[in-house]
TrEMBL record:
GO MF terms held by the record: porin activity
Gene Ontology CC: one annotated term: cell outer membrane
Subcellular locations according to the entry: Cell outer membrane
Protein name (Swiss-Prot/TrEMBL): Peptidoglycan-binding outer membrane protein, OMP_b-brl, OmpA and OmpA domain-containing
Entry's Gene Ontology BP terms: monoatomic ion transport
PANTHER family, sorted: LIPOPROTEIN YIAD-RELATED, STATOR ELEMENT OF FLAGELLAR MOTOR COMPLEX
Annotated source species: Geotalea daltonii (strain DSM 22248 / JCM 15807 / FRC-32)
């Protein structure tokens, strides 16, 4: 009997070890579970009952990520090995579950509880007894709500303790039954951990690298204005404005330049914009930050006063000389760095407008966890990039890959690079875009948009961006 027990446990553990422990939301505190299972049930040899398939249902509740309870009911149709007699068998009761690594995609657990075992032989009295059960199991989450499960249980009872006739008692010692099953588990309700509320740092251009999922994450750094919202675009216009030294007043000769933004936002009334102020490196950090902010606010006020743009559609920020676009070592470079950028968030058919200096598009596409293959349902999304590049054949594009913080930093870096390269290859091989016009860059989890502590946050961080540099021949 001990050998049988050992072999069954070994087979179960090997099966579970073949499942990849990639990160997912895992067990949610406060969630309910509902499962359907199928497998086999083996009886103690002294019971003289055939091994047969077993079917069952489970219903449970997770008090925390680690601790949960589960009620169960199983049924098997079997027969005696000594006589031509069919037997209906039922198992019912409850168990306590201890989840190990509850935040992973593969969640092993230990189980222990107390169950009732009922045999109902045809033409004889029904026999029922209690049994302690214990075992192991694992859930492999296909999504945040649906998981495959595999279980092994050992039932321990006193054989013969309840099998008696009036005046007779037969105790044949300790008996063992074994159940081994697979099934589907549905998790619903509950809530993932809320990110801690913390003050945001001074806005940098690069995002903060997230900490491992088992630790508290710092708040995401402010998203650069040029980072597109999924399904929308960032239409980036650099304004060539000349301000007097250390002044923020707009010159009359620059009114036509600002009109490029005002007229665009009038034409597309559902757009919003961030007006960014930038300077060269002459002066102190504090002075340039204040000066760039005042100049951005002057442009914002002009758009409100002269073009009637609602102030709620505009915001302004100053970066000083943090984000140069040219070398501050030359006068020409300094002049390029003294600029105002209008970063317009919009949703429209980009193939029907004149291209800006820079256009950023976030593609609405997802990848399977840990994989880089492009799923067929996202081919139309990639086609938007090709359509735009074919309409404007002088444009080039950088395809950026981003991941959540599942796995190691090296793994995420390679995965994001591979995903970006697969998009580039599809544009070249399937849609006819010249490879010389495309490049791929993977950023791993280094530029997150949201917390990785929730499924929604991780989904936002897994993204592909297409960054167009638009050089249009006049």
């Amino acid at each position: 009997m001990k050998k049988i027990n050992f072999v069954i446990c070994l087979v179960s553990l090997v099966t579970l070890s073949l499942l990849s422990p990639a990160m997912a939301e895992g067990i949610r505190p406060g969630s309910f579970t509902l499962s359907g299972i199928i497998g086999g049930y083996t009886f103690d040899g002294r019971q003289h009952i055939e091994t047969r398939p077993v079917y069952g249902v489970r219903g449970g509740y997770n008090f925390t990520k680690h601790w949960g309870v589960e009620g169960l009911f199983d049924y098997a149709r079997t027969e005696s090995t000594r006589a031509d007699q069919d037997i209906n068998f039922y198992r019912y009761g409850g168990e306590v579950l201890l989840h190990v690594f509850p935040d992973n995609k593969l969640v092993p657990y230990l189980a222990a509880g107390y169950v009732g075992l009922t045999r109902d032989p045809e033409g004889q009295h029904t026999v029922s007894k209690g049994a302690f059960d214990y075992g192991i199991g694992a859930k492999y989450f296909l999504t945040d709500d649906l998981a495959l499960r595999a279980d092994f249980r050992n039932m321990v009872f006193r054989e013969g303790a309840n099998v008696q006739r009036p005046g007779e008692y037969h105790d044949e010692g300790t008996g063992f039954n074994y159940e081994y099953t697979i099934g589907l588990a549905w998790q619903f309700g509950g809530k993932g951990p809320e990110p801690a509320v913390m003050a945001a740092p001074e806005p940098p251009l690069l995002q903060v690298v997230p900490t491992p999922p088992v630790q508290e994450e710092a708040p995401p750094a402010p998203v650069p204005a040029a980072e597109p919202t999924p399904g929308r675009y960032k239409y980036c216009i650099s304004l060539n404005l000349q301000f007097d030294i250390d002044k923020a007043l707009i010159r009359a000769e620059d009114h036509r330049e600002i009109a490029r933004v005002g007229e665009f936002m009038q034409r597309y009334p559902d757009t919003t914009a961030v007006i960014e102020g930038h300077t060269d490196n002459v002066g102190t950090d504090e002075h340039n930050l204040d000066l760039s902010r005042r100049r951005a606010e002057s442009v914002t006020n002009y758009l409100v006063d002269k073009f009637g743009i609602d102030r709620s559609r505009l915001s302004s920020t100053g970066y000083g000389f943090k984000h140069p676009v040219a070398d501050n070592g030359t006068e020409a470079g300094k002049q390029k760095n003294r600029r105002i950028d209008a970063i317009i968030d919009c949703a429209f058919d980009v193939t029907k407008i004149s291209p800006p200096e820079r256009l950023c598009m976030s593609l609405l596409m997802e990848f399977e966890t840990g994989r880089a293959e492009i799923q067929p349902r996202y081919h139309d999304e990639i086609a938007k990039v090709a359509e735009y590049m074919k309409r404007y054949p002088t444009t080039t594009a950088l395809i950026e890959g981003h991941t959540d913080n599942t796995g190691t930093a090296d793994f995420n870096q390679k995965l994001s690079q591979e995903r970006a390269e697969n998009v580039v290859n599809y544009l070249v091989e399937k849609l006819g875009i010249e490879r010389s016009r495309l490049s791929a860059k993977g950023y791993g989890a280094s530029r997150r948009l949201a917390y990785n502590t929730t499924a929604e946050g991780r989904k936002k961080n897994r993204r592909i961006n297409a960054i167009f540099d638009c050089v249009v021949e006049k």
